[in-house]
Design brief:
This is EF-hand domain-containing protein. GO terms for molecular function: calcium ion binding. The protein has a single domain (8-133), classed as Recoverin, domain 1 (Orthogonal Bundle), CATH 1.10.238. Helices cover 61% and strands 0% of the residues. It contains 7 helices and no strands. It has helices at 8-15, 29-35, 38-52, 62-69, 79-89, 99-108, 111-133. Helix 1 (8-15) packs across helix 3 (38-52), helix 3 packs across helix 6 (99-108) and helix 4 (62-69) crosses helix 5. The longest helix is centred in the last third of the chain and has 23 residues, at 111-133.
Length: 134
């Protein structure tokens, strides 16, 4: 979109990283990360944050998550589910998700992204050990 916000289809794919209880979603975050350059990928994550955030407070609250998740095809989210998602990503304990907390949560909840991160870490350790032994 021209305003920098993500298109609905790409955000639906991104949000599949946030499964609700008793529901399974295909994890599309690694596919997005692979197909998009880093700036576009981060832009998509930030766009997801803006879609879910309380516009007045500038953070994702349990209420804004419940209300706005329907825009992404996740109708019927319970208060308990939205509060659990907020708790899962709330690193500073303020009861809401900032943009950075949201992005961290999306990556953390993506098994594919975690596997890739582990592979990157292993490669970095091997390279560092190789340099140290030379």
């Amino acid at each position: 979109m021209e305003d920098g916000s993500p298109s609905r289809p790409s955000m639906v794919k991104m949000e599949t990283a946030m499964p609700m209880e008793d529901e399974e979603f295909e994890d599309q975050l690694p596919v997005m990360a692979e197909k998009l350059d880093m700036d576009t990928f981060v832009s998509e994550l930030c766009g997801g944050f803006r879609l879910l955030a309380d516009q007045e407070k500038g953070v994702i609250t349990s209420n804004s998550l419940r209300k706005n998740s329907a825009l992404l095809g996740m109708e019927g989210m319970s208060e308990e589910e939205s509060e659990a998602m907020i708790r899962e990503g709330d690193l500073n304990g303020d009861g809401a998700l900032s943009e950075s907390e949201f992005c961290i949560l999306m990556v953390r909840l993506s098994p594919g992204m975690i596997q890739e991160a582990e592979a990157w870490l292993e490669k970095a350790v091997i390279e560092e050990l190789s340099r140290s032994s030379n």
